[in-house]
């Protein structure tokens, strides 16, 4: 089996759809010796900011000298981005080997049909065990209560800001969605909460109380103060009882990253690794693609996976603050099952010109539909391009000196854009893993 065949098999598991539930992952993990019990973990759920928070947690743990795993989703360019140890992506050859072994395991489990994410979760945990990972930051794929990652037994649980998303799976109200996210709360396990809307916060606190969990809430029990944001990252202060840090640099852009980093620090405090110098070192070394990522220059091309209205709102504000007075050429590609109107309502006002496109994915909304929805919101004059790579070239042609090209609306769009940019520059995709 070659890498492309292994990944093809994994993507082929998407035919099983999304099946929220723990029976399949528990059965699969038990068959390989429950590798999730071999390492300590911090479990992260939420709607926005969980990828940044997970990355920050893993980076600080690594700076503390722990062999550290990181499991996140989705990826931008390569599946290997999802599984990392000490900041390095899993090798393609290892994916092939693990896929083959897990296929044999599944064959010996009658009636088991794991989904893509269930299979990937088992692969990550097995890889962590076989490489002597001591700590892992584990990000949920969707929800929490019935997510395959909810098989871990965490030392700390984290829930970043929750908003309306994945309604077809998690529920039609904020309270229902918050309840699913709160499903990662375990008896007696400390809970760290990022900023939450009152309705969501009430659900999480109720669940924590039922499970006798100590709760630490951003803005009540720990704080951050943004000092500066530039094209290279942010500088902020952190404060909680017993720990005060000044002028911490975090190389992720956007004002909201101060909140994500503070949430990560609090989780690290509770995990028992609150050395100030190592926190600074870890945050300073964090890397996360697809979040206000400057992917190319002349013109500056910025990628962001914002795929719900709240994320689009924070992205729009960050763009205005980081690039004041600069004209924006927006390339927008959004999945059809997302809140298209809500996302466009936030992104379109920042743009001088807009190109609607679609990543090569079955759930992608057609550019024509995006244009029609934009028209319904009072925005006209957008251009259409059926492919992301073509949309980028069209944007380059439209951009004038000093303009910014912003590519947003979905991680699938951002990922295809990054791939096209790398291909245009002659950069090998494997260099992303160096």
**Shape-level CATH architecture of the largest domain:** 3-Layer(aba) Sandwich
Tally of helical segments: 15
Total number of β-strand segments? 17
List segments where confidence is low: pLDDT < 50 over at least 5 consecutive residues.
Answer: 429-434
> What is the residue-mean pLDDT, rounded to a whole number?
93
Label this structure with key terms:
434 residues, disordered C terminus, six-stranded mixed β-sheet, single chain, alpha/beta, 15 helices, eight-stranded mixed β-sheet
Q: How would you describe the overall organization of this protein?
A:
The protein is of the alpha/beta class and 434 residues long. It folds into 2 domains: 3-284, Mur-like, catalytic domain (UDP-N-acetylmuramoyl-L-alanine:D-glutamate ligase, 3-Layer(aba) Sandwich); 293-433, Mur ligase, C-terminal domain (Protein-Tyrosine Phosphatase, Chain A, Alpha-Beta Complex). The chain contains 15 helices and 17 strands. It has helices spanning 3-12, 23-31, 50-63, 92-107, 116-130, 167-170, 174-181, 198-210, 257-271, 276-284, 309-322, 340-347, 367-376, 388-398, 411-425; strands spanning 40-45, 68-71, 83-85, 88-89, 135-139, 156-159, 191-193, 215-217, 223-230, 233-240, 243-250, 293-296, 300-303, 328-332, 353-356, 383-384, 404-408. The protein has an 8-stranded mixed sheet, sandwiched between helices. Strands 12-13-17-14-15-16 form a 6-stranded mixed sheet. Helix 8 links the parallel strand 7 and strand 8 (215-217). Helix 7 packs parallel to helix 8 (198-210) and helix 11 packs parallel to helix 12 (340-347). The longest helix is centred in the first third of the chain and has 16 residues, at 92-107. The model is unreliable at 429-434 (pLDDT under 50).
